[in-house]
Every structure is written in structure tokens, then in C-alpha cells.
Amino acid sequence: MPSFLAFDLGAESGRAMVGRFDGDRLSLEEAHRFPNRPVRVFGSLHWDVLRLFGEIKKGLAAAGGELASIGVDTWGVDFGLLGPDGALLENPFHYRDARTNGVMEKLFTVVPRAEVFERTGIQFMQLNTLYQLYALRLERPHVLDQARTLLMTPDLLHYWLTGRVAGEYTIATTTQFYDPRHGGWAREMLESLGLPDRILPQIVPPGTVLGPLLEAVAGEAGVKPVPVVAPASHDTGSAVAAVPAEGDDWAFLSSGTWSLLGAEVREPIINDQTLKLNFTNEGGVWGTIRLLKNISGMWLLEECRREWARQGSSLGYAELCEAALAAPAFTAVIDPDDPSFLSPGDMPGKLAAYCRRTGQPAPDNRGAITRTIFESLALKYRAVLEMLERIRGRRFCVLHIVGGGSKNTVLCQFTADATGLPVVAGPEEATAIGNVLLQAMALGHLRTPGEARELVRRSCQPRTYVPANRAPWDAQLHRISGLL
């Protein structure tokens, strides 16, 4: 029975998951889990990437046994820069760092917004790699002068595991300087911005065997130098690979710190409509494009919980969900993607300020705050689904929710009620499963995408939520539409 080790690093935590395939079903076992929290230094927010690599080595040691291969996926947009000697030049910045404030507007004076979208087809968010890199050019150009290689976070970790420099396709597309029409870096646009394309690595497709694990790393972890496979190294790419769907009338929602709602398409859709609606065309698996919108997800509640913990009250999700159901409905509606919610710190206070600014009563207790977040997310999901249906010119019959948010029974039911669609929730560990599927396909244990998704359907038991009462949600839709 082959065993595949998937490292799945999210913005809050990381996991080393062992996937075992017996030829009929896939099982998943957690070998190691660790927190992933940013570090603030002199006012700037950074990832502690060396500690993360140390945790990966701990995960290798904890998994032990005979492994067929390993692979890493992470969140998108963040990167490390290597110097001429191949060493990291500085600690990678966190995408929520404030250095990109106002940078998009400065960039658009050089390359207009519409032209950036025409070249890349990517949703405009100030955290995108393009604006991080342009901020570096404006504020600290000497760092770019020293840089010889840019590696996205999973590519950097793969480099430290194998010594090979490569940029995996799905993570490359999150940068907003990949051209999906021509299948390569948008070099002319970068040149116009004074950004060096010499630092960009060769792009490889998901499922590429990068090479064997370095002997020094293998020896330290007590494992054999097994193959290292680049899965869909962007965590959403791996998560969507594990959606247990059939046919083509479904939409997906990868639910975690971020909510990524979209559909698989065969070609990028880059036109005036997708520009106006600010959709993104990210690289998917098996020759697909993930046409989607990034929505701030459980980040809002996670930040509220951190603030409440600082005040001496640690409430679990089950308690908050119970309190939310007991709270009055639709006290307030927020846009989860308001810029005031992007940075860390006192989220309950930010929510109250938003409500005052928009002329709404602020939710005044933790249950009411939680309910406001869940209701607002469900309403935004509906609004985005309706946009997506207009873009594609066809209706969806089912919404698949995967990732940690698929465990949230309250939000799943709210989403079914708000959208009027049946919601199929699960698998919870879709990202790790998708990572394992890509490794298994790279080594010949699975042959086709249909075979991979059929394996997921046999191996997990999703829960279906049926729409119950759409009328109250219909009545509230104008509130979220007005805010958007």
C-alpha cells in the first residue's frame, strides 16, 4: 500500500498528512500539526519560514516508514528572494503587511488597471505578488538588485527539500504576472514596471517530480531520499482537485481563512465583464482554469476569537455557532472584503465601526457578531454565485464546500438557504487529499482526473444541506448588494 506525505500549510497552521492508497480507497492520517503565525519586526509582518521548514522536517520524521513521495502546498501570493549564493536574502513578508497600501494606484499610473487584467486575468487585491514586488521596487530597490531568484512559498520549501529551482504552475498564477493566454510570465508588463524578469524560475506543471529528497534532509529526518513531487502547490488548486463532483454543473467553495468560490473552466475568461466584476483566472489541475473570486472567509471570526482570548475568554467554534443560532437574524450585514478588515487586530471593534459607518446597529455580543459574520458570508456567496452564473451563461445545480469550513454546520445551512442550492460539504481535508492525488498520479497509481475524483467519492462521506427557507435571504439581498 503506497503512502504519500502531503504537507499542507495554511495561513493559520500547517499539517503533515499521510495518505494511504490501497487500490480502492484513500485514507488520511495526521502525522504532525503546527501553528503558523506571522512575526512582527520593526512594524513589518513576516512569515517565520525557517521555522516552517523545521516543522516540515519534524513531519518527515513523524511520518517515518516507507513513503512513496512527498509534496508541499501553501497559501498563494507570498515569496522569498534568493541571492547569488542561493541563500534567502531576507525574511519573506506576510501578505497582510501594510507596505502594499496604496501601491496598486501607483502601479496603475505606469500600466493601467485594464491592461494588467488583460495580460493576467487575475482579481485585483493589494496583497497580490505584483504589488508586493512593486512596493519593493519603490521602497528598497537594492534588494531587487541583489536578488537572483524569486520562489513562491511552496517552491522555496521544495527548493530546500531538493535543491531544484522551479516554479509550479498553479502557485505561479497567483502572482498577477503570469499570462494564462500565452502560458508564461508576463515579461513585457514586468519590463514596463521596471521589475526584473531574470529572477523568475522555469514553470513546471502540477504533478512534476522535482527530484529526490536531499540526502542531508533525509538523514536528519531518518527517512529515505524519496521523490519530491510538486502537487498543485497552491492550496486551493489541490483542494479543488479533491472536490467529489460529477459532471460540469457544479460550483466549488474552498472554505477556510479565505473563501474561494468559483468553477472550473477550460479557457481563461478575460473580458470587460470579468474585469468589472473583479474575477480571477487561476491555474487549475488537469488543464483547467479556476474562474473564481477570493472572499475573506473565516479570517473575520478567527480574528474575533483572538481578540476575545486576549480579553480572557476563549470560546470554541461549537459554542460560537450555538450562540449565533440564538442571536437575532440580520442585525447587520457587512461586506467581508471591506479593506478595514484586511489587517490583524481588534476585529470586533472594526466590525462595530463598519456598522456605524454604514448606518446599521452593531451586533453587541459574541453570538450576534458570529451570526453577522456567517449571514454576511452566505449573502456574499449568493451574490458571487449569481455573478459567476452571468459570466458563464448557465445555472449551477449544486455547490460543493470543501476545506475546514465544510465542518461549520451553521454556515453550510445558511449558504444553502441563501443560494437556494443544495450544498455538499466535505471533505474537510480536501487540500491534503488533492495534494496526495497529484502525487499518486505523478507516480502512476492513478491515471485520469475522473478516476481521482471517483476515489474521493468512495473514500469520504460528504454531508448534504438542503435549502430550507430562502425568502428571508431574498429580502436581505439588497443590503449586501448595496454594500458591494
What does this entry show, briefly?
Helices cover 40% and strands 21% of the residues.
Describe the structure.
This protein is of the alpha+beta class. It is built from 19 helices and 21 strands. The strands form 7 sheets. A 7-stranded mixed β-sheet has the order 17-18-16-15-19-20-21, with helices on both faces. A hairpin with a 2-residue loop joins strand 15 (250-255) and strand 16. Helix 10 packs across helix 17 (430-442), helix 15 (366-392) crosses helix 16 (409-419) and helix 15 (366-392) crosses helix 19 (471-483).
Largest sheet: 7 strands, mixed
Beta content comes to 15-25%
SS content category: alpha+beta
Q: How are strands sequenced across the largest beta sheet?
A: 17-18-16-15-19-20-21
**How many DSSP-defined strands?**
21
- State mean pLDDT (0 to 100 scale): 96
Helix content: 40-55%
Count up the helices: 19
The oligomeric status of these chains comes to single chain
What overall form do the CA principal axes indicate? globular
User: Alpha-carbon distance between the termini?
Assistant: 50 Å
Low-pLDDT parts are: none
From the alpha carbons, calculate the radius of gyration and give it in angstroms.
22 Å
How would you summarize the topology of this molecule?
Layout: E1 3-9, E2 13-21, E3 26-35, E4 39-41, E5 44-46, H1 49-63, E6 69-74, E7 79-82, H2 103-108, H3 113-120, H4 129-139, H5 141-146, E8 149-152, H6 153-162, E9 167-168, H7 169-172, E10 178-179, E11 184-185, H8 187-192, E12 203-204, E13 208-212, H9 215-221, E14 227-230, H10 235-241, E15 250-255, E16 258-265, H11 272-277, E17 280-283, E18 289-296, H12 299-310, H13 317-326, H14 347-357, H15 366-392, E19 398-402, H16 409-419, E20 423-425, H17 430-442, H18 449-459, E21 463-465, H19 471-483
Parallel strand pairs: 1-6, 9-12, 15-19, 19-20
Antiparallel strand pairs: 1-2, 2-3, 4-5, 7-8, 10-11, 13-14, 15-16, 16-18, 17-18, 20-21
Helix pairs in contact: 1-9, 10-17, 13-15, 15-16, 15-19
